[in-house]
Amino acid sequence: MKKQLIMEKALELFAKQGFEATSVQQITDYCGISKGAFYLSFKSKDELIIALIDQFMMQIIADIDYLVKNAKDSQLLYDFYYAIYHSFQKHSDFAKVLMKEQSQTFNKDLILKMQYYDKLLENNILLMIERLYGDEVKATKYDLMYCIKGFMNMYSQLFVFYNVPLDLQVLSESLVEKTTLLARHMTVPFVTEELSQMFTQPMKEEGTKEQLGKIIEQKIDEMEESIEKESLLLLRQELLEPSQPPAVVKGLLENIRNHPHCKWISYLLRQYFYTWIDKEQPM
Fold first, then answer.
1. Which residues, at least 6 apart from 182, have a Cβ–Cβ distance to it below 8 Å?
2. Which residues bind DNA (predicted)?
């Protein structure tokens, strides 16, 4: 609870002053705690910033991944845009700080962290494009993916920096129309797969059985008795000794998907089980 308090209060200061202008002393004064209490939760201000980025981006990536793999094709693109802008609107303070600071930072860890999540998002966008348009955009899908990312960035600035009142439904419908026009009529690609790989950093390996086991153990220790905790216990057993049919595993993942402390482990477990469970039914 103290760690979450520090994150919430620090975010308020970062939104007003920026990362660099906010000191640990200011954060502790604002929280009403000692520096010692701060350093019990975070080794440094940079570690706190990374934790905030993780919390924000893990929720977005987990939600988008689930949507891309489960939404009906007719609604997928609309649901994608709506989910993205709803998240940015809901967390506008942090979105404002993040969009401003990542363009100015020289912090290598922060840059690598953002590149990691950006790559995960790109993978989901490409999967969505392939689902919706297939071979129709084989030569242009990487250009289309960067166009979609451009839409996300440009229109987010309207309510992140300018407080423009937005109708998310109309905005999403408008971007669906633009994206569909590009997909159907774009013929001269600039960004190819090879070019895309040139400015993409290698992704770190994540989601091995050992890593997943450690994360599950941590979540189980943190949670009170609930259907989510019971589902995690069963998923841990399935991770160690697979025995359940895909439908059961899918149901267990669905049980934990919306719990605020389980979104990321739900996402990682979907990736881990995906290779065999998706043969039977979508995750």
1. 144, 147
2. 23-42
Q: Which amino acid is at 99?
A: M
CB 201 within 8 A of CB 119: yes
Q: Which residue, 271, 269, 242, 239, is CA-closest to 256?
A: 269
Which tens digits make up the pLDDT trace of 82-120?
Answer: 998 888 877 777 777 776 666 555 567 777 778 888 888
Distance CA 137, CA 130 (A): 8
- Locus of tokens 């408008």: 174
User: Which position has the token pair 């000794």?
Assistant: 241
**To 10 degrees, what angle do helices 45-70 and 2-17 make?**
100
pTM for the model stands at 0.76
> Closest by alpha carbon to 17, among 96, 88, 124, 90?
96
What tokens appear for 210 in the block? 């050992």
Q: What is the torsion angle, in degrees rounded to the nearest 10, for the CA atoms of residue 88, residue 91, residue 95 and residue 98?
A: -140
Interatomic CA distance for residues 88 and 106, integer angstroms: 24
SS3 of residue 182 by DSSP: helix
Give the three-state DSSP class for 239. Answer: helix
